[in-house]
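Annual report, structural modelling task.

Input specification for the adenosine-5'-triphosphate complex:
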Amino acid sequence: MSSPVVRIIGLTRSFEQGGVRIDVLRGVDLTIRPGEIVALLGPSGSGKSTMLQAIGLLEGGFGGKIEIAGTDAARLGKDQRAAMRRDHLGFVYQFHHLLPDFTAIENVILPQLVADVPREAAEARARELLDALGLGARLDHRPSQLSGGEQQRVAVARALANKPQMVLADEPTGNLDEATANKVFEQFLQLVRGEGSAALVATHNERLAASMDRVVRLHEGVLQ
Ligand SMILES: Nc1ncnc2c1ncn2[C@@H]1O[C@H](COP(=O)(O)OP(=O)(O)OP(=O)(O)O)[C@@H](O)[C@H]1O
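The model returned the following structure:
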């Protein structure tokens, strides 16, 4: 059996708020296999974003163990964590965070150049992903010239540009109207499946969650 893309054991995280300690994550265990698409459900404030930040190696302050692609994150220095994010993980957020002065295709090319992909190959890959998302006629548009759904699709293409083993998505269609959200989400899932990436997708939407391979729920700091 192939090794998991992510394995977390006993993940904990607490915050101080106004002198009061809140234990948000109280011992979360989760294993995600290659290509597995997992929905992360939980009420507002239950710690979904906090969990994605931990797995994305974006912040410290966590207890427990996180392994990404078989490597214990605790052993990685700052630069190695950045390399792990770049080479193995893709990120999609509720808001697109595209670079406003770059076109759609440039936004998808850039992370590849940072990963030392040659320019021509990076451009071909960006074109392929944007085409697959129905944005073939929008390659040279800047984010401000795109609709919300189109911006979010560019963000999806950017997340997949470096062929990540896993995509971490935090309410990736949360700022879109329902019809657009459904369409973009369907395209997102189809592309992630086609690419063979695993994904962990935080959402409030039970219906979208049901279309994924597995659903886990955060409740009172643990997964159910
Ligand atoms: N940097 C921080 N400092 C203090 N408290 C924090 C911090 N980050 C998160 N929290 C608290 O941790 C809890 C979980 O927040 P988190 O954003 O992970 O929840 P969530 O499940 O993603 O919520 P939502 O569905 O509303 O996005 C909340 O009570 C939040 O206020």
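The helical segments are 48-55, 78-88, 104-114, 119-132, 148-160, 178-195, 206-210.
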